Amino acid sequence: MRGNAEAHELIAPGNLAAVLELLAAEPGRWTPIAGGTEIMVAHAAGKLTAPRLVSLWGIADLRFIDTRPQSMIVGAGTTFLDLRAQAELCADFPLLAQAASWIGSIANQSRATLGGNLVNGSPAADSSPALLVYDAEMELISVRGTRRVAYSEFHTGYKKNALAEDELLFAIHLPRRFGRHRQHLRKVGTRRAMAIAKVALAATVLVEDEAVNEIRVAAASLAPFPTRLYATEGTLMGERITMETVRAARTAMLGEIRPIDDIRSTAAYRSRVGANLLEEFLTELGGRVGQA
User: Fold this and answer.
1) Which of 110, 166, 176, 272 is the most buried (most CB within 10 A)?
2) Are 119 and 180 in contact (CB under 8 A)?
3) Which domains does the chain carry?
4) pLDDT digits 0-9 by tens, 233-258
5) Model-level pTM?
6) Are 170 and 141 in contact (CB under 8 A)?
């Protein structure tokens, strides 16, 4: 079944204030569309149920990268190609830059926006694990003002999030304090490029005196939404990386993830690969610490 364009209404107010006023006047009746890389695929397949769309494309107030001494602020309308082209962001947040390079083709990266990727809420979202381990915060905006929500609390269920019906995601805040951390990102997909993740794992770790002083681990495709693995982290805090701690972390991960069976993979496969990715990272980390 193909989509019928006549079944949908699309308007483009052209500025942020007008979009927010529209959402406030008719909360829940308009679906924002940014780059359209997800929505237009759904439309082409005849699966787009939203009858009324409001375009965010071309709104300058949403497309920016603000560099500050303690943080970087990325507008929700910033494309993945914009991220890859920003040298300071690539240097301070290499995992996000790496994830940006995974988003489809260059054509996709020129249209797909960071905000759209996050609000879409796919459990396999490429940018999500990196943002989780970077302690990102989401700035939400409406005619009532702005508020900030930790990204780790933004997703509330499968394809559900903390946005109110009259709100937009305005920006993503990234603290610039991970320069001393060892950083890791790995994705397993059907192909090396232009593939949706079967499993992805990100981590930032600060090691002092050969023991884990600070750690964040996050995954895609191992739960109904991208998630931090707090129990896994807890087994490693304050510990040296040994075979025993690696086994304990692997067991903890298998206990807290909730993968599913779908057309791309099985839950059993995802569980095993996720645990293998964690073990691979920790084993490599332990070797580097031992050589330091």
Assistant:
1) 166
2) no
3) 5-55 (3.30.43), 61-175 (3.30.465.10), 182-291 (3.30.390.50)
4) 999 999 999 999 999 999 999 999 99
5) 0.92
6) yes
